[in-house]
Amino acid sequence: MLNSNEAEPFIEDIMLAIAQEYQCTEVFPKEKGVIELVDVTVYTVMYTIGIFLA
Which of 14, 18, 17, 11 is nearest to 2 (CA)? Predict the structure, then answer.
C-alpha cells in the first residue's frame, strides 16, 4: 500500500525490477546506437565570422 496518489513511477520501478529478475528482455527499451557527428568547429567558425547558410 502506498500513501500517495502518485504511485505510478514506484509501481513501474517494481515491475521493471521483476522483469529484470526473470530476464524478460522484451520489456526494456532497445539500446540506440552511437551517431557520428561532423566536425562542429566548421560551424563555430562560420558563426563567429558571420557567415550564415540559408
Answer: 11
Nearest 10 degrees: Cα torsion 23, 27, 28, 33: 110
Cell readout for 26 is 522484451
d(CA 22, CA 16): 10
Of the CA atoms within 13 Å of residue 27, those in its CB half-sphere come to 13
pLDDT digits (tens, 9 = 90+) for 1-50: 677 777 888 888 888 899 889 988 888 778 888 877 777 676 666 666 66
